[in-house]
Design goal:
Order of helices and strands: HHHEHHEEHHHEEHHHHHHEEHE
Number of helices: 15
Shape: flat
Structural class: mainly alpha
Distance between the termini: 190 Å
Strand order of the largest sheet: 1-3-2
Largest sheet: 3 strands, antiparallel
């Protein structure tokens, strides 16, 4: 039975139990009613209450009986429905079992069919695998067979080579054995010869020692002393021959090259002349009278303070009669200050406002003078195309001096010398003159820019579009950069000619005296020197030597050593001639 049927049976059983309980309650109530008195007192409250209660109980029993009967009816209908459902369920179960049996039969049939098909496919695949394996095996067998044949052939070839090598080794062993026999024989002969040579060498060594002892006994010198004496003699002879060779080479070089170089340089120097001014950081202004000094100083020094603050030039008023000094390291600024003070003295009106007005006027006047000086120098040299800023910088060099030589005139002189050299050597004259003329342009900015004036000038030339040859000549004229072109070399040479000619430049007295003292010290420090004289402002050195200690060749060597040491240790313009004097005197007295 299904679960639904069991549930229906349980419900019916419960309803039956309820009905039985209601019936038993009803019977008990009837029995109680039957036992009650027949005619109870009508006004007894207990009786009335009991009666109402019994009536209510009876009504309740009836209601319960009606409900039980309706419940029984419903249970009967439910049981009938349950039986109908159970019958339908049984029918459906039967149909399901039939359908399941049919599906199972169909599945069994399908499985048999699939299994049969799988068996046939497996047999076909196995057959194909067996055929492929058979073909692969045949290929491998054929490959192995061919490989075996090749290996057999290789083994045979190796065996042949081994046989050939063995034969060659046998022949080589025989040759080596023969050679060993010959070497053994030669070794025996060499041993015999070596023994005889050792005996002969021993005899020769003994004879050499005996001869050396005999020579030392005869000469009265040991071997070391004789060797030292021989080395010294050879060294002296070599020095003498070297000095003679050097002298001959120098004479030949002078005959072939110095004459031509001297002609070019002297010709260039003789064709150029220029004024020279003394280098100074002080300018002197003469006054019409000493009373003007008080007007220049002003009340409580206001005029002199205003002048120094406006011009940047220090004004020195001392006891010098009718003169004042202007001091400044910038030559252009010093010239502007000098011209300003000169105009103020001529005008007579000296006060701070007037100083500023006159300073502006003097400044424009000096700028015009600089511009005119630069243009005149360019015209004299023959340079037409140049940047305007370069012209202004060149004009500032009118008031710049170097070792007492005016820089602008030095540039003009250097350009002319370089042009003469370039013409003699058949080079590009305008390019070389331009390089020489611009080589010191950096000195116009040495008070404003840090660094060497050669590098400053090269940067300026590069900035304002000068040719690379000109730039290189400017930066290389003091060897900050190694010279690489002929323009740079000629610029150096013309600069040296302009600055080194007699009278071109002056030095401070202290540096001049120190250089002369050092030159004399260098020459006096050599062996055999008796006296040293510095002549012609240090441009010639006369060295007096002892004739007994220094011979003619030694004098030539001494002169070269002194000149070389001076070149290495000192810096000087031009050149210094070293002359070694060796004087021999013979004195006899007649009695």
């Amino acid at each position: 039975m299904s679960g639904l049927e069991w549930a229906l049976l349980a419900a019916i059983a419960g309803l039956a139990a309820l009905v039985l309980a209601a019936i038993s309650l009803g019977a008990r109530a009837l029995r109680r009613i039957g036992t009650m008195p027949a005619t109870p007192p009508p006004d007894d409250p207990a009786f009335v209450a009991e009666k109402d209660r019994q009536e209510q109980s009876l009504a309740a029993l009836r209601t319960a009986a009606d409900e039980a009967s309706s419940s029984v009816d419903m249970a009967k209908s439910a049981a009938a429905a349950a039986r109908a459902d159970a019958a339908a369920a049984k029918a459906e179960a039967s149909a399901a079992r039939a359908e399941a049996q049919r599906i199972l039969d169909a599945a069994r049939a399908e499985a048999d069919t699939v299994l049969d098909r799988a068996h046939r496919q497996a047999e076909a695949d196995a057959e194909q695998v067996r055929a492929a394996a058979r073909r692969s095996g045949e290929r491998e067998i054929s490959l192995l067979a061919s490989t075996t044949r090749e290996q057999a052939a290789e083994v045979e070839r190796r065996a042949q080579r081994m046989d050939e090598r063995e034969r060659l080794h046998t022949e080589e062993v025989e040759r080596l054995a023969e050679r060993e026999r010959r070497l053994t024989t030669a070794a025996a002969e060499l041993a015999t010869r070596k023994a005889s040579l050792v005996a002969r060498e021993t005899a020769v060594a003994e004879a050499e020692q005996q001869r050396k002892r005999e020579l030392e006994r005869i000469a009265g010198l040991t071997a070391e002393a004789a060797r030292a004496e021989l080395v010294e003699a050879i060294e002296g002879q070599a020095k003498r021959e070297a000095a003679i060779l050097v002298r001959d080479i120098e004479a030949d070089a002078r005959n072939t090259a110095e004459q031509r170089a001297r002609h070019i340089v002297v010709d260039a120097i003789q064709r150029v002349a220029s004024e020279q001014t003394a280098e100074s950081v002080v300018s002197v202004l003469h006054l019409p009278g000493d009373e003007m000094k008080g007007r220049i100083i002003g009340r409580e020094g206001r005029n002199i303070r205003a002048f120094e603050s406006v011009t940047g030039v220090n004004l020195i008023i001392d006891d010098t009669p009718e003169a004042v000094l202007l001091s400044c390291f910038d030559p252009v600024r010093r010239e502007i200050g000098r011209l300003t003070l000169e105009k103020l003295v001529l005008d007579g009106r000296i006060h701070p406002h007037r100083i500023e007005e006159v300073f502006e006027t003097a400044k424009h006047e000096v700028e015009r003078l600089c511009q005119r000086a630069a243009e005149d120098a360019l015209v004299e040299v023959g340079i037409t195309e140049i940047h305007p800023e370069m012209v202004s910088l060149l004009g500032r060099l009118r008031y710049r001096t170097s070792y007492g030589q005016n820089v602008l005139k030095h540039l003009v002189e250097t350009a002319h010398i370089a042009g003469v050299m370039a013409a003699e050597l058949r080079l590009d004259v305008p390019l070389i003159k331009r390089s020489a003329f611009l080589h010191d342009i950096g000195k116009a900015l040495t008070h404003e820019v840090e660094g060497s004036h050669a590098l400053i000038g090269a940067d300026l030339a590069r900035k304002y579009g000068e040719a690379e040859e000109v730039v290189h000549a400017i930066e290389a004229h003091h060897n900050e950069v190694p010279p690489q072109t002929i323009e740079a070399v000629l610029t150096q040479a013309s600069d040296a000619c302009s600055g080194g000619r007699p009278g071109a430049r002056r030095e401070s007295l202290e540096a001049y005296v120190k250089r002369l003292e050092r030159i004399e010290e260098i020459a006096a420090g050599k062996s055999g020197v008796e006296k040293v004289f510095a002549m012609q402002a240090g441009r010639e050195i006369r060295v007096m030597v002892k004739p007994d200690d220094v011979d003619e060749i030694g004098a030539a060597v001494l002169a070269r050593d002194v000149a070389k040491q001076i070149e290495e240790e000192l810096t000087y313009p031009g050149q210094i001639r070293v002359t070694v004097v060796r004087e021999s005197r013979v004195t006899e007295i007649a009695r």
